[in-house]
Amino acid sequence: MISLEKVSTAYKKENILQDISLEITTHVSILGENGAGKSTLVKLLCGLQPYKGKIRIDGQDIAQLSLLDLAKSIAYVPAQLEIYDVTISVEAFVLLGRFAYKERFFAYSQDDRKKVQEVLALLNLTQLSQHTMGSLSSGQTQLVLIAQALAQESKIIIFDEPTANLDPKNSKIIGNHIKELKQKHQVVLITHDLHLAHFIDSPILFVQEKQVRFETDFFQAERLQALYGVAFDNLAVAYA
Questions:
Q1: Total structural domains in the chain?
Q2: Prediction pTM value
Q3: In a domain, 145, yes or no
Q4: 28-82, pLDDT tens digit by residue?
Q5: Which of 24, 88, 168, 229 is placed for a possible disulfide with 2 were both Cys, Cβ 3.0 to 4.6 Å?
């Protein structure tokens, strides 16, 4: 469970989120307009953004956790990798997900390597294990990012715009994997893709005017128009 108690955060002295108090007890999809504060909320949960108030994961104050301990609770999957070694192999990249469990000054253990092989097989990536990261397509790269998060064995996995750079075919593949992960992990999805959010079928958190709130009847055309300020036809399910 994730809980926020009177949490506020600012950038250059301007409040982005203000006095947020809520509990996230299950899966959730976070939506909102550009610049509303969705990515900032993710940074808060990952301990990467200064804030006032309290953020707890399963009752533990994240301000009291080391980065390694926090990594055991939360894994973050970005929309794309901007800075990384393009020559690193897929297997070696996924192995980095085991860093929180690695003994200092020692090599990765056989158990670490076994876990990597398991997640590569799960996502049908075994045949790409020795390929370099720089040789992968956008869809393959996104699957490898998910594999690294699974190797991390965190209870909570945060996906930040996972289909933003993908074509419809790869978006559907990623969407199906995310939905399957809900069986074993608490999934937090940040997206602008209403079709994806509809398919994942998690409760909706909407970020607007520095506030965060749960929405009911979110996918009704009238409610969508009220929130986004544009007219909507019936929302087609593109991931089924």
A1: 1
A2: 0.89
A3: yes
A4: 999 998 888 888 888 898 888 899 999 999 999 999 998 888 988 999 998 887 7
A5: 24
